[in-house]
Amino acid sequence: MKTKTETILTIMKVLTWIVFIGLCIKTGALIVSLFVSLFVNPAASQDIYLGLDLSSIQEYDQWHYICSASLLIFFTGLKAYLAYLVIKIFLKFNLENPFSPAVAKLIDCIAQTALTAGLFVIIMGAYGNWLSKKDILGISFGDSGSEFLFLAGIIFIIAQVFKKGIELQSENELTI
Amino acid sequence: MAIIVNLDVMMAKRKMSLNELSEKVGLTLANLSILKTGKAKAVRFSTLEAICAALDCQPGDILEYEAPAKAFPKKRE
């Protein structure tokens, strides 16, 4: 009989898989839309993904359009990678021996990826602001940069606590 | 580690095998092996009590302290 924690972990695993698959589909769709808008039909930039309109950037400059779309694809891919790392943690996590070096390494990786995403969003935000000063409608990321940085900070602290937990667990295992 | 476990010496004196000691003390063979090979980081008093009772000895018969050798001994003038 599953405990409440195990049930919650199973539900979280399923939700993470859904998020990961969704982000992969979004990244793939963005790549295809970019390709179509560049080589097949430039009008595709008016609806690059679920109504996102980058046609004003494309009209301003083709390279800025490629840059904006590429940065959006990279950011979506980064989020998909974060979801992938979380899935890997769920696969390797064991409640009986939770503190393992593999999970600690994954948590470290998530902290670094979240930090990269946060810094990236701040840079993208500055780029978007620069475009908007030229009256060009760019991609808006809102305040998600600071959210990612906050997430990175919290996960970094958790990673340090986890590393200490590994030390304590191995000491406990070698205590007869 | 500076603490040496002389469990095998006491076991030989009492002519007891690891299996027998494991059954008497209530520890798994794996844990006893960790203790015997000096890989243990700590020993609980309850475990030490059980081992001493099983081998009819004192803790000092099983545990020994050896000061770590200095890396660069002083040159004698």
Quick structural gist:
With 176 residues, chain A is mainly alpha-helical.
What does this structure look like?
The complex is a heterodimer of chains A (176) and B (77). Chain A contains five helices and no strands. Chain A has 176 residues and is mainly alpha-helical. In chain A, helix 1 (4-39) runs antiparallel to helix 3 (62-92), helix 3 (62-92) packs antiparallel against helix 4 (101-133) and helix 4 runs antiparallel to helix 5 (144-173). Helices cover 49% and strands 8% of the residues of chain B. Chain B is globular and about 40 Å long. The N and C termini of chain B lie far apart (31 Å). The mean pLDDT of chain B is 88. The chains are: A mainly alpha (176), B mainly alpha (77). At the A-B interface, loops of A face helix 3 of B.
The rounded Rg of chain A comes to 21 Å
**Main beta sheet strand tally, sense and closure of chain B:** 2 strands, antiparallel
| Share in helix of chain B | 40-55%
Shape of chain B: globular
Ranges of chain A with pLDDT <50 over ≥5 residues?
Answer: none
What share of the residues of chain A lie within helices?
A: over 70%
Question: How far apart are the first and last residues' alpha carbons of chain B, in Å?
Answer: 31 Å
Number of helices of chain B: 5
What pattern of helices and strands is seen along the backbone of chain B? EHHHHHE
Question: Count the strands of chain B?
Answer: 2
Q: Look at the structure and give the mean pLDDT of chain A.
A: 88
Tell me the fraction of residues in β-strands of chain A, as a range.
under 5%
Summed over residues and divided by their number, the pLDDT of chain B gives a mean of: 88
Spell out the helices and strands of chain A N to C: HHHHH
Distance between the termini of chain A: 31 Å
